[in-house]
């Protein structure tokens, strides 16, 4: 996931990531501040830091840390579900002059493990194969976890659909019984009315 978004200096912005359990998440970000003179975003925002907070689906705080104008944060999900990642600047400027916009460039990698090429070059060929093999095994484990999570979601959705269909069927049966009862009551009422008026 690579994106950018705008926010005010005193504002908090959050994104939601659906992440499988036991998955490493690596996020890289860079902050740019709007410059009133050039009417453009400056390449860097010195002295401006970002509070990064990550909350699990159960509300547990997995990460809460202050970083600089650009940085890398990592966390591991313990349960599958929607994790909330929030950003807020540490700007101490007064609200009156803190209307400056910030642009946050964000790149989030879920379950990916990137190889350190310089470390690989320093090793012999056997070690290189071992490192690449370990990386491949990690990626296979991640794909497996992702598939299991998708299976869990599909099963949950199927159960919800079956319950909904069952409820609809019972409601249709109840409506039919009510209509039949009302029809029988109306016929009986009409019959009693005609008998009382000696029309039958």
From TrEMBL:
Taxonomic lineage per UniProt?
A: Eukaryota, Metazoa, Chordata, Craniata, Vertebrata
Membrane-protein topology: Single-pass type I membrane protein
Main subcellular localisation: endoplasmic reticulum
- PROSITE patterns for this protein: GOLD
One Pfam family from the record? EMP24_GP25L
Query: Where is the signal peptide, in residue numbers?
Result: none
The gene coding this protein:
Tmed11
**InterPro entries cross-referenced by the UniProt entry:** Emp24-like (IPR015720), GOLD_dom (IPR009038)
PANTHER family referenced in this protein's UniProt entry, alphabetically? TRANSMEMBRANE EMP24 DOMAIN-CONTAINING PROTEIN
| Family, similarity comment | Belongs to the EMP24/GP25L family.
Record's protein name = TMD11 protein
Residue ranges annotated as coiled coil are 119-146
Instruction: State whether keyword DNA damage applies.
Output: no
